[in-house]
Design brief:
The chain has 480 residues and is α+β, with helices and mostly antiparallel strands. The protein has four domains: 90 residues; 92 residues, PAS domain (Beta-Lactamase); 73 residues, Signal transduction histidine kinase, dimerisation/phosphotransfer (DHp) domain (Helix Hairpins, Orthogonal Bundle); 184 residues, Histidine kinase-like ATPase, C-terminal domain (Heat Shock Protein 90). The chain has twelve helices and 13 strands. It has a six-stranded mixed sheet with strand order 7-9-11-13-12-10. The chain has a five-stranded antiparallel sheet with strand order 2-1-5-4-3. The protein has a two-stranded antiparallel sheet with strand order 6-8. The protein is elongated, with a radius of gyration of 41 Å. The N terminus is likely disordered.
């Protein structure tokens, strides 16, 4: 019966008056309509005959008047007969309506259970009269029998059902299914029918795992953010107290203290800026980007803006584009938000600079994949460990995919750390050559931006040879 299998009990129903009498109701209506047509035909023919007799002298006008009065009396008697039959049919109609309405309610209840993707059940008396496949799997219900309510095997849930029966008010409780001890569900229990000693009861369950994960993520985020802000703030406060205390008269040491304070303040500004960027991206995640961005223009602008960081560490940045043809020059357009795409480039290049040795080299590559080409992002660095951080589709059959990658020649990243890249405040400094300045939010921002653009993000690395980050976007349609 498919994914939404449902068990429905078959209970005896009342038989309507029409069903008891066979087609008598229809026969009565048909006879009534036939009688009406016959009487009107006789009256019309009778009146025409009277007029004809009067015109040709076969009947006087007085006799014709008398005949017309008699015809009107017949018509009045017919009308009263019709009204009497209608009055007799009215009680029959009233006895049919409640039965039809009860059947409609039962069908609506069953359809409701089938339509829900969440586990859902309907309870009547002490039996489960309907449940979908999700509820059957959760409580291990047998679809070939009518399971009793006791088969739910959870005291809180059974107690909630009892409370709804007694008070008629909705109830809710949190349960852990006996066969799934690692799960937690919220059960909402509602009476579907009023003014009954044993009402139909609907139970809908909601998985609390996403809520629990969100709560843990929020708690972890607040703890990490507090820690990251507290560290530079403590350093600043310590040096200020030193300058006000034991080093008050040591003017020669002040420039070094001031440099440290300025460095820590800069770190705090960067952290706050990244937190605000991350919050802004999350708040705007429902807005679909719709601007055409030419990566041939955006990438060089970002690299030029970060040139001073590369020069400081004497790092060479090389850029490799597709074949320099007119067609390739016009094929690097994507649909996105320009400020967010620039953040992706700056964060990836900034990370590559931070983790590259002095005098090293960073390679930036870009290209386009047509729909018929296999996605090279599946594995582009032979022998490297790999993790996909955002697994959105790489374009569609119509428009293709635009990608770019950033590779450094640092110490690389340990394979066990790759899946956690993109988590807020997660750092792998120990596996990449020791402590490195940063907020720990750069890759988290990249990850959220790529998810917002329905793109992809993957990382590959070999220890001792560096790391390669690749992102990809859906290509802009040619007509835009």
């Amino acid at each position: 019966m498919g994914n939404n299998r449902i068990l429905l009990t078959h209970c005896p129903c009342e038989i309507s008056a029409h069903e008891r009498d066979g087609s008598s109701g229809l026969t009565s209506i048909g006879t009534q309509q036939l009688r009406q047509r016959d009487i009107w035909g006789l009256i019309s023919g009778f009146i025409v005959l009277l007029i004809a007799l009067c015109l040709f002298g076969g009947l006087g006008w007085g006799a014709a008047s008398l005949a017309a009065v008699l015809g009107a009396a017949c018509l009045l008697a017919y009308a009263r007969t019709v009204d009497a039959e209608r009055d007799r049919a009215a009680p029959l109609q009233h006895t049919v309506d409640p039965i039809d309405r009860h059947a409609s309610i039962q069908k609506a209840q069953r359809d409701l259970v089938l339509a829900l993707s969440q586990p859902a059940l309907i309870v009547k008396d002490n039996q489960i009269t309907a449940f979908n496949s999700s509820a059957g799997a959760l409580f291990s219900l047998n679809i070939d029998t009518v399971p009793p309510v006791a088969s739910l095997r959870h005291p809180r849930l059974l107690g909630g059902i009892s409370d709804v029966r007694q008070r008629g008010e909705s109830s809710a409780c949190e349960i852990v299914p006996a066969r799934h001890p690692g799960q937690s569900w919220s059960a909402h229990i509602t009476a579907l029918t009023d003014h009954q000693a044993q009402p139909d009861i609907l139970i809908v369950l909601t998985d609390l795992a996403p809520v629990r994960r969100a709560e843990r993520a929020r708690a972890d985020f607040l703890a990490n953010a507090s820690h990251e802000l507290r560290t530079p703030l403590t350093s600043i406060s310590g040096f200020v107290e030193t300058m006000q205390g034991v080093a008050k008269d040591d003017k020669d040491a002040w420039p070094r203290f001031i440099d440290i304070i300025a460095e820590q303040a800069s770190h705090m500004r960067g952290l706050i800026s990244d937190l605000l960027s991350l919050s802004r991206i999350e708040l705007g995640s429902h807005e679909v980007p719709d601007t055409i961005i030419d990566l041939r223009q955006t990438l060089p602008e970002c690299l030029e803006a970060m040139g001073h960081l590369a020069k400081r560490q004497k790092i060479k940045v090389s850029v490799q584009w597709p074949e320099n043809t007119e067609e390739a020059a016009n094929s690097m357009a994507v649909i996105g938000a320009e400020s967010e795409i620039k953040q992706v480039v700056q964060n990836l290049v900034g990370n590559a600079i931070k983790y590259s040795p002095e005098g090293g080299e960073i390679s930036v590559s870009a290209g386009r994949l047509d729909p018929e080409q296999p996605p090279f992002m599946a594995r582009s660095w032979e022998g490297a460990s790999r993790a996909v951080l955002v697994s959105s589709p790489a374009g569609d059959e119509k428009d293709g995919t635009i990608w770019f990658s950033v590779r450094d020649r640092g110490v690389g990243i340990s394979p066990e750390h790759l899946p956690r890249l993109g988590e807020r405040f997660f750092r792998v400094d120990d596996s990449r050559g020791g402590p490195v300045e940063g907020t720990g939010l750069g890759l988290a921002i990249v990850k959220h931006i790529m998810a917002h653009h329905h793109g992809g993000l993957a990382v590959e690395s070999r220890l001792g040879e560096g790391a390669l980050f690749t992102v990809w976007f859906k290509a802009a349609p040619p007509d835009r």
